[in-house]
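Case study.
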Amino acid sequence: MRNNKKGVEESYKSIVLIKTTNSRKIYLFLYLMILILIAVLIFIKITNRPLDTMALKLVAAFVIALAIATELHRVYNIYEIHDNSLIHTQGILSKHSRKIDFSAISDLYVIQNLWQRILSYGNVEVRLFSGENTTYIKNINKPSEFVEIILRKINQKAKRG
Amino acid sequence: MKYKDYAENPHENKSMYIKIFIFLIFAGILIFIIYSSFYPNSFSKLITGNAVKDLNIKDSVEITAELNSPEKLETSGSIEKIEIKLKDPVNLYIGKETIELSSSTSIIIDNYQGDLFTESNTITKLEGKTTKVFINGLPLTAQTKTKISLDPAKFDYLKLNNFYLDSLSYTASGKISLNNKKVTLSLDNERISIDKFIGNLEIKKSSLSIKGYIDKSNIQKILDITSAKQNSS
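After joint prediction, the assembly is written out as follows.
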């Protein structure tokens, strides 16, 4: 039992080939809000209009809160490609990891809507032979390249036998 | 679970609600900034019912001044009461009506909200809204706020009560007293800048009287005049 646990730990600690999180492109809508608020503040300053200190504090609080929230949201989901497996880790303080061995993967789908195609990010659906617990890798940059790397690794593993 | 299910799953709906919530906060802040910038006293009036309370008493200092009248004065926002004594005949527009006013007519405008610009004892712009106007003591009232404007008009007397002035900067002569006359400055053709003022302002011929409060942060600017004077002497 102890040996088994040790083996799992070792496989989790294997070399990380690729580590990715949510793309910042999904927050463009939020970044645009920040830009609009800053642009309005600059306009008010340039036109010498009175600027309410409460408004200034609200903008500062909103910008800081959004910056922190988006970064925390990004690191909430971490996807790692190891030599033999794909690991999906969820959580910030308490972590929940799921390891998918490459030999268990049956299909890989890249899913992108028009907006995601324009900005070159998207989702990857990882299906298993078991047909259960499909894993979704959401909003990563260049999902096709991510899938290519997994496929290459699967092929390498198949050749090794 | 197919992709369709995944797209419709509750997590996606939750994410949409969060986005809407963030957007509403953003819209609220944006409206607050724009509104408070164009109508500086309106929010404080909504909250406190009194524009003078806009400046925190801890952060403001009482100011009174007797100076020569400024070349230019520009204010936008709400003014509790405007008192004007005209020098020349001029047209006043209230709603769709035009009122021809003769010289020496006195006008009182209550609860005014809009722009008021003056230049050399002439009102160059008065465009805004009001609920009550008195012409030579006779009231003209409206149930809702009505548009009011005045053609460029020379005046003998102008008084603005309980209003916010973002900035007044000009070469002045006269006296300024701060903090219940604890500090009194005499100016002789010196550049002065009074920012973030709330209170009353009166222009009578070539003299200007102000009484109200200014933001504490502007005290240094005014006191710098005295230090500059001491250095030069």
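Observations recorded in class. Confidence is low (pLDDT under 50) at residues 1-8, 47-54 of chain B. The interface with chain A takes residues 1, 3, 6, 19, 22-23, 25-26, 29-30, 32-34, 36-38, 40, 43, 76-77, 164, 166-167, 196 of chain B (CB under 8 Å). We will return to this complex in the next lecture.
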